[in-house]
Design goal:
The chain is α/β, with parallel strands linked by helices and 335 residues long. It has one domain: TIM Barrel. 27% of the residues lie in helices and 17% in strands. It has helices at 51-63, 82-89, 109-114, 129-136, 141-153, 173-179, 208-218, 284-289, 295-303, 315-318, 321-324, and strands spanning 18-22, 68-72, 95-100, 119-123, 157-164, 186-191, 224-226, 236-240, 246-250, 263-266, 271-273, 282-283. A twelve-stranded mixed sheet has the order 7-8-9-6-5-4-3-2-1-10-11-12. The longest helix is centred in the first third of the chain and has 13 residues, at 51-63. It starts with 17 loop residues before the first strand and ends in an 11-residue tail after the last helix. Bound molecules: S-adenosylmethionine and iron/sulfur cluster. It catalyses: GTP + AH2 + S-adenosyl-L-methionine = (8S)-3',8-cyclo-7,8-dihydroguanosine 5'-triphosphate + 5'-deoxyadenosine + L-methionine + A + H(+). It comes from Algibacter luteus. InterPro entries: Aldolase_TIM, Elp3/MiaA/NifB-like_rSAM, MoaA, MoaA-like, MoaA_NifB_PqqE_Fe-S-bd_CS, MoaA_twitch, MoCo_biosynth_MoaA/MoaC, rSAM. GO terms for molecular function: 4 iron, 4 sulfur cluster binding; cyclic pyranopterin monophosphate synthase activity; GTP 3',8'-cyclase activity; GTP binding; metal ion binding.
Length: 335
């Protein structure tokens, strides 16, 4: 049954007030868990949303109840017209935020502030420069590290996203938590998720339970404080008593948070994805370009949303490559 009034409510009663827009399929890093070694097939430029189209589509979502927009990619800051995209979206009544690898974010401090961006999520998977180079295939550790410090100093709310992988950076969990001792940032440990071309297998993933084991062996029960999670939060939040910052775990694999999911995703080539894990997409851009209204397409896509992880509702299903290989690579979804 469709809901005429609220096109952003799905058949499981979830309202979708949060739109993540991927601005670009390219990136200045090459994280192994995100971008396949051989690269990805890029859309021709003419198939990518222009800034006017991004604005038109975003405005439609806002008219139907979206209150939060997060810009992502690829690396959103390498898109040449990012200043005008920010300026246009800042005219909408939304909380505007961005996810970036922060390599060049120091050049954008004023423009982000001028357009009301207050929350910035930054990817950083290792505090060790050599390991950073290994995972991102680029030598940019210092820039990213210094830019995280800069963002904090400039008054942004900073969350650092670290994807954990067995035998690679799980031994840095406690170092990352110590990083929050004097810095009021949140480090979020993300369970490694399967996407096309990222050679995922369950044995490489560090689970929520394993992360908490590390925490429990390094800190006493009294030191570990469970924080209140925000509504629709994807993470379980904690802090160490007396530390300025906090840490969190995003457990999409072992403990999905789909019940309270309020997110929709728009890819850089204008496809609406109703779930990070969904293998189907709805073509908003062609609909817009042919002069038709996009609302019916949005409503149909939202109605088709599965209750859990794009239909991969068990760990067994998640482990079947044919199910997640139908999805895109993460670099072209946007995280
Ligand atoms: N380039 C920006 C960045 O790295 O923050 C934005 C795009 S990136 C695709 C968004 C987020 O997706 C990053 O925090 C990244 O760590 C996360 N991500 C990418 N591939 C992932 C995977 N296989 N499992 C878990 N998280 C992943
Ligand atoms: Fe680029 Fe972000 Fe993907 Fe790394 S995680 S390759 S920085 S888009």
């Amino acid at each position: 049954m469709t809901n005429e009034k609220n096109i952003l409510q799905d058949s499981h009663g979830r309202d979708h007030g949060y739109l993540r827009i991927s601005l670009i399929e390219r990136c200045n890093l090459r994280c192994t868990y995100c971008m396949p070694e051989e690269g990805v097939q890029l859309s021709p430029k003419s198939h990518l949303m222009t800034y006017e189209e991004i604005y038109e589509i975003a405005k439609t979502f806002v008219n139907h109840g979206v209150t939060k927009i997060r810009l992502t990619g690829g690396e959103p800051l390498i898109r040449k017209d990012i200043p005008v995209i920010l300026e246009k979206l800042a005219t909408l009544p939304v909380e505007l935020s961005i996810t970036s690898n922060a390599v060049i974010i120091d050049k954008f401090i004023d423009i982000l502030k001028a357009n009301g961006v207050k929350k910035i999520n930054v990817s950083l998977d290792s505090l060790d420069a050599a390991k950073f180079k290994h995972i991102t295939r680029r030598h940019e550790f210092e820039k990213v590290y210094n830019n995280i410090l800069l963002l904090e100093k400039e008054g942004f709310t900073v969350k650092v996203n670290a994807v954990l992988m067995k035998g690679f950076n799980e031994n840095e969990i406690i170092d990352f938590i110590h990083f929050t001792k004097d810095l009021p940032i949140s480090v979020r440990f993300i369970e490694f998720m399967p996407f096309d071309g990222n050679k995922w297998d369950m044995s490489k993933m560090v689970s929520y339970a394993e992360i908490m084991n590390y925490v429990n062996t390094s800190f006493t029960k009294d030191q570990i404080v469970r924080l209140q999670d925000a509504p629709n939060d994807t993470s379980k939040n904690y802090k160490i008593e007396g530390y300025k910052g906090s840490f969190a775990i995003i457990s999409s694999v072992t403990n999905p948070f789909c019940d309270s999911c309020n997110r929709l995703r728009l890819t850089a080539n204008g496809q609406l994805k109703n779930c990070l894990f969904s293998s189907t997409e709805s073509d908003l851009l062609t609909t817009l370009r042919t002069g038709n209204t996009i609302e019916p397409v949005i409503q149909k896509a939202v109605q088709a949303k599965f209750k859990i992880r794009g239909g991969m509702d068990t760990l067994e299903k998640l482990q079947q490559p044919k199910l997640h290989n139908n999805n895109r690579s993460m670099i072209t979804i946007g995280g």
